[in-house]
Amino acid sequence: MTETMETTDTTGSRGSRLLGVVTLLGLATLLLFAFALTEPDVRLHPTTGQEIGQFDAVRLLYLHVPLAVFTYVAFVLCAVASAGYLVKRTAWFDTMAYAAAEVGTVFCGLVLVTGSIWGRPVWNTWWEWGDVRLMTTLVLFLMFTGYLALRRATVDPRASARRGAVVALVAVLDLPIVNRSVEWWENRTLHQKSTLGELKIQDLTLFTLMLGFLVLGLVLAWLLLHRFRVGWLEREDAGHGVATAIAERRADIDEGDVDAAVGEGA
Asked: Most exposed: 5, 60, 123, 163, by fewest CB within 10 Å?
């Protein structure tokens, strides 16, 4: 019995522990390449010959860009699972939606933080309120923060899941706006268009960026796996608590009926 409980009441498994080890090694390798082995972004101005570029600030992009991409992935997964819940009304979809929203919100917050740190030396400002990419990303972060607050504030689990699913499906509509904002409002953003799509990066720089995508994908998978398991255990614990309370109430009622019968017989 003890072994069964230890196996059930945990978010860890042999596979998840292996994934965690690989993820940690990947993170260490990524940080080594990003902050030690790659070169800073230094170029010469074509007319003046002056050194220009992002210099050492470019190293943050090996984290910032993959974080942004996997923020999209997490929020799309949340929306898909939310739609699945509205159709199927199963606990699996609801738990996955909640887990993806929580991890995605953490990733989105890190996108804003790393972007601000990168922007200070490159743009000479921590934040630009008129930048459409920044503002739409902030709106995305606030909408999913509101999703999490709503899920916590609603007592009824079914109502919480249903309302959260609707909010997630509305919030995810901001994703294409965030992604295309640089192209749609190019005069209202400090962000540049994708250099990856135009193949302006290569060699060790390209390798490190691809490594960043791989490692942050592993981080997302590991966090989702454990957050899903935590959510599932919380749901089962809540169900067990309700079942226990019902059983105790029935026992009290049965005991009261017996006492009443004894009293009548006396």
From this structure: 5
